[in-house]
Amino acid sequence: MKFRRKQNDVVDVNITPLIDIVFLLLIFFMVSTTFDEQFELGIVLPGAESAENVILKELEIAIDAEGHYYINQQRLVNDRIQTLQKAISKIAGEDRTIPIILSADANTPHQSVITAMDAVRQLGFNRLSFATQQLSAQP
Fold this sequence. Notes:
elongated; single chain; 31% helix; 5-stranded mixed beta sheet; Nucleotidyltransferase, domain 5
């Protein structure tokens, strides 16, 4: 007697819908994520009545509460004016029309801010602005 063997059906899993869902989730999280420029340094900006939203254009000098300098979020090796000038010159090159934004913590020593302003002036830059945050309305 001859028995017929039962054929095994091949199970095929289609993962195309799974890939579509993963890409949709990836796109959703990429679009909905926000980035904070000051998050890494933890600088608390001083307030001003006429504060505007400052957008980082070319060069940002940040000073933390201890008086340490950062150029475009890269910490300098020391806090001397010569080091600050070399770092600014390296980024700006010969272009002295680049806008420079000075972001100093509200508790930064006054001398650190003056040193940064002096370094910028000695290099011949004339477009210096200060980053501030809007004060909340008081009753």
